[in-house]
Amino acid sequence: MLLVMPFRIDPHVHSHFSGDGVSSPEAIVRSAKKAGLDGFALTDHNTCDGCRYLRDQGLLREDGEAVNGFLIIPGVEISTAEGHLLCLGVWLPNGLKGIPAKEAIAMVREQNGVAIPAHPYDRMRAGIREGHLEELEMDALEVFNAATALQRHNESAKAYAVRRGLPMTAGSDAHYHRAVGRSHTIFSASTLNVRAILDSLSTGTTLHCTPLGTLESLRKTFFNWFRFRKKRFYLAPDGAGARSGEVGAGVAGV
Asked: Where are the alpha helices (DSSP H) in the chain?
């Protein structure tokens, strides 16, 4: 029998490669380690550019293994036609915004990743609503999103997951490095790598649920509604993720 250990992972994190994220991937890594996490999933909006960047910096391995005892799971948050979908353990092409959720899930399954609808009951954000959830074969459900302002929306998500017998996750939905890990998921796995962490979802998780503070929530809302910074693009040396566009200035020092 394999010995399992608890690993603290934040499965919902954004960098400045998201249109509304403000922190560099390196700043996120530093904050995640300072928060005592064992890793996080980088889930920028509709792009894996940040994951490719971290790979080329030697901070994320394509074989799914941890780097110096710290794991970064490649991922993306796709704005599907029905709402936001977290896709973990995958390297998907950019530009999938607007595709049907079923199609996105099929692409995730082709890469043996997991698909997790984000903040499904949050009426202030584009979650996949219950009527559409009923039609989807998801791997888990985000039942606590630290950036959700009204906790009854998180409670509704948890109730739905219980009703369907779905594995559950909690995430910070951090768009600023200091919010990383505020909420996170504790996975029980035999080793710290992408495959072991994602496979352990089916055996159950423990959730660390702490909402963002008022100032952090206001910061996230501000940058979500008023996107003054140009979205960052990354052209990897192998050409993956190639797109045209200006590189934004970002936030000084992060």
From this structure: 25-34, 49-56, 101-110, 130-133, 151-164, 194-199, 214-225
Q: Per the structure block, which two tokens stand in for 47?
A: 């792009």
Q: What are the residue ranges spanned by the domains of the chain?
A: 7-225
Digit-coded pLDDT (tens) for 39-56: 999 999 999 999 999 999
Distance of CA 245 to the CA centre of its chain: 24
Using left for φ > 0, alpha for ψ between -120 and 50, and beta otherwise, residue 169 falls in beta
pLDDT < 70 regions, the chain? 1, 214, 216-231, 235-254
Choices 3.90.78.10, 2.40.50.140, 3.20.20.140, 3.30.230.10: CATH for 7-225: 3.20.20.140
Rg of the chain in Å (alpha carbons): 17
pTM equals 0.89
Report which residue type is found at 201.
L
227: its two tokens: 């996107």
CA 96 – CA 92 distance, rounded (Å): 8
